Amino acid sequence: MNSKITQIISQLPSLNFEKSKQFYQEVLGCRLVEEYEDLLIFLWDDNEIHLWKCGEKIVPENSSCYIRVHDIEAVFERYKKVLGDKIALKDQPWGMREFYIIDDSGNLFKFGQPIQ
User: Fold this and answer.
1) Sheet arrangement for strand 47-53
2) Which residues contact 19 (CB under 8 A, 6 or more apart)?
3) Has this prediction a pTM greater than 0.90?
4) In this protein, which residues make up the domain named VOC (predicted)?
5) Where are the domains of the chain?
6) Three-class SS of the chain
7) Tens digits of per-residue pLDDT, 80-101?
8) Number of C-alpha atoms within 13 angstroms, CB side, residue 112?
């Protein structure tokens, strides 16, 4: 028997599927692969991310996802082209170089790489 976890998929709340579809595709560069009445499934590079329909603003405002990357500067530049000065790359005291993106519903994405 193999008990190894093969994948972990973030499932985040969305307040408005139409706005989320636009944000995830146009800003984050995700590809919508499946759409249901209460669930959107995107591919983000080679990773799945799910959005579920939510009616309470407090839920996404308290939801987040941490994304470790290999080349934080390249990823930052990719999103800076779209978001401009809304994002900033910063070295954190806990040894990570990070930047943050907040989606249309208020979910926080933290991108990070260990400082070498």
Assistant:
1) 10-14, 47-53, 39-44, 31-36
2) 104, 105
3) yes
4) 4-114
5) 10-114
6) CCCCCCCCCEEEEECCHHHHHHHHHHHCCCEEEEEECCEEEEEECCEEEEEEECCCCCCHHHCEEEEECCCHHHHHHHHHHHHHHHCCCEECCCCEEEEEEECCCCCEEEEEEECC
7) 999 999 999 999 999 999 999 9
8) 15
